[in-house]
Each structure stands twice: as C-alpha cells, then as structure tokens.
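User: Can you fold this complex?
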Amino acid sequence: MDTILDIKNLTIKFGSFTAVDNISFSVGKGEIFGFLGANGAGKTTVIRAICGLTNITSGAIFINGANISSRLSFIKPHIGYMSQKFTLYKDLTIKENILFSAALYSMDSRQGIKRMNELFEYTNFKENENEFVKNLSGGSKQVVSLCACLLHNPDIIFLDEPTAGISPASRVLFWNLIRKLSGDGKTVFATTHYMDEARYCFQIALMRAGKIIALDSPENLKRITACDNLDDVFIKIISETKGNYES
Amino acid sequence: MSLDLSRVKAMALKECKHIIRDKFTVIMGFCLPIALILFFGFVIELNYDNINILIKDDSNSGQSREFVEKLKAGGYFNPVYFFGSDILEPINKNQSAAAAIIDKDFGKNIKNLKPAKIQILLDGSDGQKAGLSISYISGILEQITKDLYGGKSAYEIRTRFLFNPQLNGKWFTISGLMVVIIGLLSILMTALTISKEWEKGSMELLLSTRIKPIEIVLGKIAPYIFLSFIGALLVFITARTIFGIPFNGNILLFWIMCFIYIVSCLSLGILISVIARQQQLSMMISMVIGLMPSMLLSGFIFPIENMPLFFRILTFILPQRWFMEICRGVFLRGAGFTDLFLPLFMLCLFCFLMIIAACKKFKTDIEI
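Assistant: Here's the predicted assembly.
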C-alpha cells in the first residue's frame, strides 16, 4: 500500500510544555487510521500540525511526499478537515454552509450545488437543504460537515472527534460512512476516545502525554496484550506505561 | 500575494448573512448612530448660558437696575437679587457661579460721570465657565458704559464671524460628533468579527482551506463598509435636519472622504480583532482606541495646536484627527479637494497601512 501521510520525529512545544513528543508513523492510501487517547493526549495538536494550523517545533510531515512546511499551499487542496470544536455556521442554512465551503476551494455555486447533491446522495442525507443548521440533530450536522470537507474531493480526510456528542445510532451510521469512503479509496485519519470505534480502523495509534505508546492494527494489539476487546487493550497498555510517565 | 476575488466575495456574502440575521448588529448599525448623535448632540454644550449670578445691589438706583436688566437680556446670565449678609455662602454651596456687588455710589457716580464700581466674584473652580462669564460681563459693561456715559470710542471694531456668524456651538460640536460616532461604530463592528471566528473555532476550519488572510480581511470589511455608510448617512441626515448644521462643501467629495475614513476605521477594528482574538478583549480595546482619541486628541474639543508636542505628533496617526479637519472644513468652510489634500492623503495612508498590518498580524497558527 502506498504511503499518503508520513510523520517523522514530530515534536510540538508550546513554550516549555511539550504537547507532542517525538512521534513517527505512516498512513497508507485508503486506510482508516485511528488516533486514540484521552483528552489532552495531543491528538488534536497532531491533526492541526498536519493541516498546517500549528507550527511544529521539530521533525517533518509529508503528505503525498510533499513536506507541509514548504509546500502547504500545494497540499491544502488534497486534505479535508473536520474540526472538533466547530463544524458549521448555525445561522446559515445547509446549502449556504456547503456553498461557502465550496467557494473557499474556488468552486462556483453551480459546481458547489452539483457536488452537494452528489455527496448528499452518497451519504444518503435526506434533510431539506434550506434548513438552518441550528435546527439539525447532532448526527445530521456531522454528516453535513463531512460533506463540506469532501466537497473538493480531497485524498485524505482528517476527522477530529467526529462522533463526540452524538447518539450511538448516529455514531454507527457515521462510521459506516467512513468505511464507505475508505472503500472508495479515501484515506481517513480520525481521532476518537471511543474504544469501540477503533475496531473499524486498519491501524490505531494510542497516544498518552504527547507520545505514541502503541501503534498497530486492532487485531494485533488484542493478540499482543492477550485481551478480548479494545477497551481492555487500552487499559492494559496505559497501566503498563503509567509508571514510565509518572516517574 | 495572489488574491482570489471569488473567495473574498464568498466571505463577504457569508458575513452579510450573519449581519442580516443578527438583530444586535443591525440595531448597532442603524439605531446606535442616531441615538448617539441625538444624545451627545443635545448633551454636549460648549457655550454657557443661564449662568446664575447673585446681585447685591447696594446702590438700588435706576442705573444699577438697568445694569441688571442688561445682564438678563443678554441671555447668558440669570440674575437673582441677594439680600443676605454672606454672598459667598451660595457660591460655596454651588448654588451660584458668580456674584455682582454693586457699589452704593454706583448710580450717583454714573450721573456725575465718575468711575462707578461693581465687584464681580467668580467661582474659579470651573475655570472655563469663570473665563467665559468675565468675558460676557466685560462686554456688557462696555456696552453699558457707552450707553450710559454717551461716550464714543476713538475706533470701532466691526467683527464678522466667517462660516458660523452666530458662533453657534452646535455647528462645531455636531460636525465633530459625526467623526466620533462614525469612527467608533466602524471600529466596534469589525473589532468583533474576526475574534468571533476565533472564539467559535470556525477560524480553524477557514485556515485549513486555501483562503488567505488578505481574503478574510477584505471579505470581512466589505459588508461593514455598506453598513457603516448607512450609519454615516443617518448621522448626516440627523445633523442636517434636527440640528440644522449647514453644509457648504461638495457633497460628492465629502462622501468619498467619508468612505476612506470608514474603511480606515474598519481596518483598525480588524487589526484589533486579529490581535485580541477574544470578543470581550476586542470590545474593550476598541472602546478605548475608538472613543478616547476621538474625544481627546482629534481636535473635537481641545485644539491640537495647544497640546504638548508628544500628543501633537501622536495625532498624526489618528484617522479621527484627519477626518475632523475634513468634516469641519467641508461642512462649515466649504473646503475643496486642494484644501483637504493632506488630511485625505493621511487617511489613505492610514487605511493602507492598517490593512497591511492586519494581514501581517493575522496569525495562521493555532495555539493550545
């Protein structure tokens, strides 16, 4: 499998605080890569750095072989980003949000509408496009957000806690969409703190205090730790590494 | 720095929708300027009239009563006869700002064409009022002297006040208030817009796309130009109709200059927003930067030429100072393009520098 994302010895510091501590990993094209860890582990900081939103202290990030430090404007059209904090403008309608996102990628309204309809069909989204976002359910908002970040047909999609705060049923539907995207050749890089969602990933990285403490496929991690489910895997790995960090 | 106008347009359209759907912004844009000009227009009064003056008439003569009548007729004073023993007491209690003690021989001396005495006591704790009072009283006394003694001066000064023949203080304050209100409104409106995007987290999403800081800045400013322009127009109409301020200049030239002033202030607001990143902080900074220099350093109330050198130099970087010159020049003096070239040039320079500074200061990285 070709590599789409390659991170080498990435370190990010904010003053004296080290948010990300010398991490390295690669993600293959079409993979679903899960980035797991508790709040404050450094997951969002890594995603922001990959999207060029946070300055890196040392190390390098490559997307499709291009270094983001020197070729960010070239890389941006190839990435889609759905942030954890904000997804859509609540006082705009679905269509207005989508067309605004399309315009940011220099698509005119005709192209934007065409692409919106394609994506709504792809995601089986049935809501009225003229509905205000503030009136949508959490699950619907996340689907619209996903469509907004897929408008420009990126190669790799970064989803930061995409299922946080939505119902269990919506979470399942959303992950089905992620798997569908992966099946169609898109690479998905998702952070989550729900262990059950990690089973959908090809590879998962467990983060703790800015470091990656485990990196493998879910099945291999279960086998290595001799656990039946990923919750236990996570607890076991954390407890094994806890002493190292506390010392 | 390449610029994609379609992204600027998209940003501006999005901003327009936010404005239209946000009642607070619409109220701030349309109602606040009218409310401010009406409020300040009626409250700020640089002239003094109806100053309470106590009269202790020891002369009790026809001449002394004529003097009091003339004081009253001028409209500046409200004479009240005092019959007590301590005339300073009401002044100490702030019940009166001045007192006139008419000498017992006042009437007799005037009849005999001898010097007549009046002692004037003024509350010096309000220096401006005291200064104006003595100036008014001196004028009245000079007139009385001429009338009563029937004397004629060796020379006669005929004074004609240009551009404001009645020395109407409102003309001066209202034309200055326009500068303060338009500036404050423009700075406030944009000061919140980018910090709002940071607070909501939407800036993170914007910056992950191909949009550039200059496109965000221009897209943000564009709709507010229109809104501020409407606000300026409402202030202009209120000033002309309710306060009767004359307009002697070229209307097109005025609005072109007003446009540049609005863009300058909007750009300043954007710069505040870019630096502060928080709505509350942006609001506080813009109130200080928008209001204080407008009131104190623009020449609105205090003449710039009387300021210490440091503050005189500081006024050079204030758009309010330059638009104040333009506004008073165009409104009252009917000044033209050549008269106002320097203020216009300084405004354009300020506007350009603010937009550049806002783009340069626009942080594209997100801290924790």
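Chain A touches chain B at residues 14, 17, 19, 45, 48, 51-55, 73, 76-77, 79, 81, 83, 85-87, 89, 91-92, 96, 99-101, 103-106, 108 (CB under 8 Å). The mean pLDDT of chain A is 89.
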